[in-house]
Amino acid sequence: MSTPTLLDRTDIEGVDFAFQDDPDVHATLARLRAERDYAVVPFAGVRAVLLLTHDLVSAAFKDESTFPAAAIYRMTTGPVLGKTLQCMEGQEHRIARGVATPSFRRNRVADFVQPLLEPLAHELIDRFQGNGSADLVADFTTKYPVLVISRLLGLPVEDEATVHRWAHDLFYFPLDPEAAMRASREFTDYVTPILEQRRREPGDDLNSRLVTESAESEFLDDEQILSFLRLLFPAGADTTMLALGNTLSALLTHPDQLALLRSDPEEWTQWAIWEGMRWEPPVGLLPRACPEAVDWHGISIPALTPMIFSINAAHRDPSVYERPDEFDITRKKMSMLSFGQGVHSCAGNWLAIAELDTALRVLLERLPDLRLQPGAEDAAKVTSQVGVALRGPNALPVRWRR
Asked: Which of 183, 256, 350, 393 could hold 169 in an S-S bridge, CB 3.0 to 4.6 Å?
């Protein structure tokens, strides 16, 4: 007779957290958290441990030895993205990150706002501002972050529609592996000659820096650069797209908060962004794995157990946030778990914040009295993009005073 283990039962039935939507996901997570700090849930057809409190999720992110990122990403994203930063460890990770990410540091990102971020936001809004109405998801949030990355890389403007398709297909690898693999091949074939050209004639774009700069006297080879670029679009563009949509959805469905933001944009824009990412983080669940059996924070976890870090549960943990289900920009808390923690925290977090800040300021400046179209409240709801993990609005039908 086998010894019972943690995974012999589940704490909830009827929803696979990897692939099925739960319209009341926050209520579900709160109900599970009220029972204990973690739960055993269905995830991609197996049983996984779901961490539900701010303390546990934060500790798990920082415990790379127990929950190494490479253990899960080599299986989940490796086939389509290659050996990315997420799959690297130790010196290899340190060197690759040292070459690839300096452009995204906080003190460097400020240099992008006036020459790139603001003009691009205005460029997109110019296309629909005169109409008096738009769907901000179709016309702005799905386009802006992809174009930011594309322009940073110095990719030809005329190819941006194709680049947008690649970014989308790479991001939704779990739902359509064939499209993702095709996008990976096409993107690699497209970027490789550009990298060769930048080696011969470097410019001021990110591709030029990737092929000419080093860390600890080590340069990245082509496959390391290509893997970083394949990761950059889905990780940097689509997550920012969802975050922007979530924040706009929250503001448009909470007119009092939008009015407060309008009353003093300099004071409240940054806090609206942080509260938006707390209230509905774009990546609600992040999968990891526990390769070795361990007794961790009082949880006896068997070897090879799938783990899920519930960022959305952590961000509504009542022991950390008062009135956690309320969207309140006066909260003035920086919800950094949205970007992970530890050695594999998001390298582009300050670029994402700068994009969100710029986009929100310019939209409110250019579109006076911005509001949802009558009867559009249901359309503007944040919904599942992939299971319970990725969330954002599918549409934001708005109008404004011309």
From this structure: 183
Spatial CB neighbours of 45, under 8 Å, sequence gap ≥ 6: 16, 18
Q: Which two tokens stand for residue 137?
A: 């998801």
Task: Give, to the nearest 10 degrees, the angle between helix 255-263 and helix 265-279.
Answer: 150
Secondary structure string (H, E, C) spanning the chain: CCCCCHHHCCCCCCCCCCCCCCCCHHHHHHHHHHHCCEEEEEECCEEEEEECCHHHHHHHHHCCCCCCHHHHHHHHCHHHHCCCHHHCCHHHHHHHHHHHCHHHCHHHHHHHHHHHHHHHHHHHHHCCHHHCEEEHHHHHHCCHHHHHHHHHCCCCHHHHHHHHHHHHHHHCCCCCHHHHHHHHHHHHHHHHHHHHHHHHCCCCCHHHHHHHCEECCEECCHHHHHHHHHHHHHHHHHHHHHHHHHHHHHHHCCHHHHHHHHHCHHHHHHHHHHHHHHHCCCECEEEEEECCCEEECCEEECCCEEEEEEHHHHCCCCCCCCCCCCCCHHHCCCCHHHHCCCCCCCCCHHHHHHHHHHHHHHHHHHCCCCEECCCCCCCCCEEEEECCCEEEECCCEEECCC
pLDDT of residue 73: 86
Q: Pairing relation of β-strands 46-51 and 305-310? A: parallel
- Give the tens place of pLDDT for each residue, 242-262: 999 999 999 999 999 999 999
**Axis crossing angle, helix 90-100 with helix 222-232, rounded to the nearest 10:** 70
Reported pTM: 0.94
Q: Note the pLDDT tens digit of each residue in 97-153.
A: 999 888 888 888 888 888 899 999 999 999 999 999 999 999 999 999 999 998 888
